[in-house]
Amino acid sequence: MEVAFFVCALLLLLFGLYVGFSVGSTLGERATSTADYWKLNAGAVIVTVLLSFVLAGLPLLYGAIIGLLAGCIAGLKMGFGESSGPWRVLDRFYNINRAHREAAESGAGKRRRRRKREGGAAPDLISVSDDAARGDDNAKNAR
Q: What's the whole-model pTM score?
């Protein structure tokens, strides 16, 4: 009986991580300032605390609640796309998320958020020009 409880709790934890990450990354992409980002983090903690009060009588769901919080916080960071606060220190220490660190250091994240607030279009990431007309071999071979 105890093994089944732990297996179900682990499955709910993993499900909570997945759902939390999905929700967090979606919300992180919508954050237009670091203040919004930290407000969303605080909101995730508050929702988790409220859920733990509501579901206090169901110990099987504790793993799902913790998974939701952990996934949401990680998803917010990845959706926000830049290192800020304690994440900056951890990213630098472990030498990970180089693009997030560079966005924070170069100001690219601020420019991206300003463009998002003002409703501007995202920059083009690939060329959409007609290279075949100019004799580009790669464009000719793609036809």
A: 0.75
